[in-house]
Amino acid sequence: MTSEESQQPLFVPKVNPVNIEEEMKSSYIDYAMSVIIGRAIPDVRDGLKPVHRRSLFAMWEMGNTHDKPYKKSARVVGDVMGKYHPHGDASIYDTIVKMAQPFSYRMMLVDGQGNFGSVDGDAPAAMRYTEVRLKREAEELLTDLEKETVEFVPNFDESLQEPSVLPAKLPNLLINGSDGIAVGIATKMPPHNLGEVCDAVCHYLEHPDTTVYELMQIMPGPDFPTGGIIMGTDGIQNAYLSGQGKLTVRGVAEIDESGKRNQIIITEIPYQVNKAKLIEHIAELVKEKRIEGISDLRDESDKDGMRIVIDLRKDARPQLILNHLYKHTALESTFGIINYAIVDRQPKILGLIPLIEQFVRHRITVITRRSEFDKRKAEERVHILRGLLHAIDNIDAVITTIRAAQTADEAKEALIAKFSLDEAQAGAILQMQLRRLAALEKQKLIDEREQLEAEIRKLIELLSSEDNIRAEISRELQELREKYADKRRTQITGDLQEIVREDLIPNKQVLVCLTHQNYVKHMDVDAYRVQGRGGRGVMGISIKDGDYVEQVFVANTHDHLLCFTSTGRAYWLRVFDIPEGSRQSKGKAIVNLLDLRSEERVTAVIPVQEFSSDRFFLFLTERGMIIKIPQDEFSRPRSTGVNAISLREGDNLVHVMVSDGSQEIIITTKYGQSLRFHEEQIPLRHRNALGVIGMRMKDDDIVTSMTVIEEGKHLLTITSSGYGKRTNFDEYRGHGRGTMGVRNIKLKRNDGIVTAFSAGPEEEIILMSAEGIVIRTSVEKITIQGRSTQGVRIMRLAAGDRVVGVTSLSPEEQKDISDDIPQAEIIDEGPDENGSSDE
């Protein structure tokens, strides 16, 4: 051997070039399919994942059935892991524990003895302490396993055989549901009521062309082991039709008003919600003051059922707090349905009918194979019985033949040759006991043969038609229903009662303030006690330098506010979206609430509870232009606002009013002119139209207000200096639209009219000054005077201050006012400079 030959390697490895991208793709797909099929997604036929199936099969094999003593969980886990599932004891024990938890499985498959955890999330005891055995329902999934009904495959080391699927008399996938996360897909299937599922499958067997809507009359929706309430049926329909849907599930809570204090008592919680964490979350919300009105919270649950008691304060609103609990805690949860299951070794999303169809197909196969097995065994036994009876009829000859043989094999061959028997019959004759020769024993053999022949005929009849097999499936399901069905636990409501923000806001009257620089806030109406005419008022708002309150009105917290700007645009706002402030707070800039343009400022705000086509908005501009538009043209809110009316150059929108279209109105200007005319003179227009002349005025005068004439009321006029009066409407004779009207009030120097509106004696008014001082007084205390008088002092103002906003309170809006609020002293200033008296 040369030196070169000695240096060459003895073995040259073979290198195969591989595209790394293709290799990674192929390997990952193999891994993904292994996880999907072999671990995380249930088989559509028996509704089990491999670990569940192997656990139940191992318990069945070791005789750990419902009628036998319990066995230690550790022994069962070891058997499963050692024979069929070598993936760690933790996953196997967790699987067995879950199948034994009444709050996890609608139809439990394992009967556990010991601590198997709780709905509070407590962990189960170690497997060495707990004991288990199969429940009768689980045995219905395993029955007929020995009759060659399903395929068996080698276990992980090919030393044993395990079933690839269980015979499953019950549609376990629909009854217990399933959830699992695989690679790229996940399944989450809800449980259902056993009785309803059996009835639905039976209906499908009788009517294969049935629809989902017909099945929902029988099986209206999921039935969770923890009860609860499913809100609405849309999510159920979507899941049953397409295999995907979303359910809103609420716990069951009732308001108890029988005791000294109101209570909210929770008796059921949504499926898969941890009770302890729910209580902890409620406590955190109370501590953070996100939910107010709860004084105590305790868990009174025991072996008889769940009971969470929430004590409320005396002034708390129970329904409002319950709405907060639904909105902010897991007391209302979403259950997202996605029905992924393995069908012919492929993951598929299935609706209700395909799920039932796959179960029925599986049962047809199982019953066919079971019937063929039973028929074959019966025929084999009848064949043996015929041989035994033939031997008994010829017993002397049989005995002689057997005695003549030297060995058993010779005897068997002699019997076969002499009596036309086969090996099986001859073997049975050789094993026959002498007691079989008795007459009664012979009759037993005859009866057994006849019974088996009758059974064979039934099996032949069953196998002759698929309709017969479907009828057998239906019969079995009805038997199982009678044996295991129980009452539905989960309620289903017709409509989804979504908790929207207004359900979390108390429905009450509030005072809304808007400043000239467009700062806004709302306050409780009863923040201002009733005072006598001439009172000094209280601080109502803290304002910036140069700002002053421009509008103040009463609205309900659930009302819509239509905010009209100086440029004639309209924006929508909910009252509860306006931040609540104290009497001293300045509020929030309205530009943070509305998408206003740079040149816009809000000049009129109208609270609206509903938008009606037979009611109208009357728009009045600073230069006296007027227009009427139906209210329903503003019924569709837009975040960017809409054009309400068109304006001439230099004009601004100053007043908007709601009308029914049949009113007489009065327009009032800053310098004391008022014009009365009928609303019919105002043409009806659509949004974004240009108005017509409503009132003519002097060049330096501007319009300040507009009101309708109401029977039993007067025109209440308020000036910026704090004076006011009531005047009979009869003193204002009607003029045509577009005229200048008549004098309304005698004004002091540098004074002007803030507003003039229709007011009744039973009403109250709230005045707010530019410096934020607020006073509240009764309209009845303001005297009735003629048009040319100055009026009486309603509010005493500090030097340089002036009235800028006025609103009225109807008797209904005064209900929240305490009757024991003290009345302020009335100040009588005597005759004014024009000779009129305050009184």
Automatic annotation (TrEMBL):
Transmembrane segments: none annotated. Belongs to the type II topoisomerase GyrA/ParC subunit family. GO terms for molecular function: ATP binding; DNA binding; DNA topoisomerase type II (double strand cut, ATP-hydrolyzing) activity. Few gyrases are as efficient as E.coli at forming negative supercoils. Not all organisms have 2 type II topoisomerases; in organisms with a single type II topoisomerase this enzyme also has to decatenate newly replicated chromosomes. InterPro entries: GyrA, GyrA/parC_rep, Gyrase/topoIV_suA_C, Topo_IIA-like_dom_sf, Topo_IIA_A/C_ab, Topo_IIA_A_a_sf, Topo_IIA_dom_A, Type_II_DNA_Topoisomerases. Keywords: ATP-binding, Coiled coil, Cytoplasm, DNA-binding, Isomerase, Nucleotide-binding, Topoisomerase. GO terms for biological process: DNA topological change; DNA-templated DNA replication. GO terms for cellular component: chromosome; cytoplasm; DNA topoisomerase type II (double strand cut, ATP-hydrolyzing) complex. The gene is gyrA. Residues 41-504 form the Topo IIA-type catalytic domain. Residues 826-839 have a biased composition (Acidic residues). Its main location: cytoplasm. It is found in: Cytoplasm. Residues 435-490 form a coiled coil. The active site is at residue 129. It catalyses: ATP-dependent breakage, passage and rejoining of double-stranded DNA. Its EC number is 5.6.2.2. Residues 808-839 are annotated as: Disordered. A motif (GyrA-box) lies at residues 531-537. A type II topoisomerase that negatively supercoils closed circular double-stranded (ds) DNA in an ATP-dependent manner to modulate DNA topology and maintain chromosomes in an underwound state. Negative supercoiling favors strand separation, and DNA replication, transcription, recombination and repair, all of which involve strand separation. Also able to catalyze the interconversion of other topological isomers of dsDNA rings, including catenanes and knotted rings. Type II topoisomerases break and join 2 DNA strands simultaneously in an ATP-dependent manner. Heterotetramer composed of ParC and ParE. Heterotetramer, composed of two GyrA and two GyrB chains. In the heterotetramer, GyrA contains the active site tyrosine that forms a transient covalent intermediate with DNA, while GyrB binds cofactors and catalyzes ATP hydrolysis. This is DNA gyrase subunit A.
